[in-house]
Amino acid sequence: MKSGKIRGPFMYHTIWILVLLLTPGAFLMASEGNLPRLVPPDRVGAWTRSAPAPEAVTAETIFDYMNGAAELYLAFQFRGLDVWRYAHNDTTITVEAYEMGSPEEAFGVLSQDLGGEHVGIGQESLYAGGLLRFWQGRWFFRILAEVETAESRAAVLDLGRALAAQIPAEGRRPKLLELLPREGLTSESIHYFHTHLCLNSLYFFAVENVLHLSGQTNAVMGDYRLENQSASLLIVQYPNATSATMARDTFRAKLLANLALTPEPIELGRLESGEWIGLRLDGRYLVLAFRSRSRDLCERLLKAVILTKRGTQQ
Amino acid sequence: MSDWRQVTRRDFVRDSTLAALAAGSVRFSFAAEGDKSIVALVRDEKAIGAGNVVDAATVKKMVEEAVKAVTGESNASAAWKKLIKPNDVVGLVTTSAITPTHAEVVAAVTDGIKEAGVPADRIQEVQRKKDAAAQCTALISIPGLKTHRLTGMGTVMKNYIMFGSQPARSFHGENNAKLGSIWLEPTVKGKTRLILVDALAGAYEGGPQKDPKYVWNYNGLIASTDPVAAETIALKIIMAKRKAVKGEEWEISPAPLCVAAADKEYKLGTSDPAKIALKAIGWEKDILISA
Question: Which residue in the set A128, A207, A273 is minimally distant from B174, CB to CB?
Answer without folding.
Answer: A207
